[in-house]
Amino acid sequence: MKAKPKATRKRTSQKRAKAFTGAHALLLFPSGEDHKATLDLMRRFSAAARYAYNRLLQGWSREALKRENGPLRIFFGLNTRYADDAVMKAQALLDSAQERGEDPRKVVFGGRRLFETLKRGHLSGKPLKRLKREWKEKRQGLLYSRGDKTKGGNLNLRLLVKEGALWLRINLGDGSYAHALVKTSHPNLNALVERIHAFLPYNVELSLKEGKVHATFTWEEEPAPLVATKENGVLALDVNSDPYHLALALVSPDGNLKRHLTLSLEPVDRAKNRGAKELVLWKIAHEVVSLALEHGVAVATERLRYLRKSRRGDGSGRAFRRKQHRFAYASLLRKVHSLAGKRGVQVVEVNPLKCCPEFGPPQERGQGV
User: Fold this and answer.
1) Angle 345-220-18 from CA coordinates, rounded to 5°
2) How far apart are alpha carbons 235 and 164 in whole angstroms?
């Protein structure tokens, strides 16, 4: 009996060695029907997780619980992926209890502290009502869907970018969907949006607190092995203002130019809002990284730490300032670097003083070669 917790503890420590990061958000439902349907799905998923936990204690296998005609599908109306996620949640709770040396048969869904407080029966009125609501939310307010890179992110709980806003599409399990607006200012929001545009997997867990649905997005960060390096050459890029485009130059390892082309940035200016502009920039970043992968070369960019912006009265002229302020160069470089790192493309950053001295710090301008 003691060997199993030790094996479980070793396996759990190996999982924790992986680096996970995430973001937290509040979900806002424009439709009352979508909100009601989501709460019902969370209630059924929570019940399925409790059912799966008890069946695992009885020796049932994961495959038997999640199969097409299995009990989770029939009793709780979940699709196969939701059923598998419910079993996974139950298994994680079982492993945790065994790791701590506790009796897994005495696990209380909803929390032992709340259970013991309610059992005492010493509360009444608003405190009792508040405690019962918290107990109900703990037991019935769970929905989880793991990410899958073969499905382009997350199949059941998928994040979508629409008109500059972030939405969560919730698969209700019967062929219909509910939609909720994702409201967050989490510092990892940009990293999450990058994963959405790069079609990388992310896990989503919904929880209920004080009548509001909260979402937690988590993902594992693993550096991809380099498949395109500077030993095969580089793909250099730079932005020009007139015409507004991205200039690309494919250079061989010996420094000879093999190919050059341009990608227009005019659609960035024509974008109706910030979200649409970001989408265009992501598409351009995908084209750049795909071209580097096609030729197996690294991406060479400027190492930008300071971008000077002209102001009225400095003699630069209105036309020049208009062109300068519309530059989305830094944003585009961040997207290219992010995608390159995730797809195994080496990034080489070059000192901008060697080519564009006017963009350097004030004390170093004019020192370029």
Assistant:
1) 105
2) 31
The per-residue pLDDT for 362 is: 41
What is the percent of the chain where pLDDT is above 70?
83
Distance CA 300, CA 288 (A): 11
Q: CATH classification of 229-364 is 2.60.120.200, yes or no?
A: no
Nearest CA to 147 out of 195, 114, 191, 91 is that of 195
Q: Which of 2-11, 43-52, 268-277, 308-317 has the lowest mean pLDDT?
A: 2-11
H or E segment and range at residue 286: helix 274-295
Orientation of helix 112-120 relative to helix 125-140, angle to 10°: 150
The domain ranges of the chain are 3-220, 229-364
- DSSP states along 59-112: T--HHHHHSTTSHHHHHH---HHHHHHHHHHHHHHHHHHHHTT--GGG--TT-H
Q: What is the pTM of this model?
A: 0.58
pLDDT at 366: 37
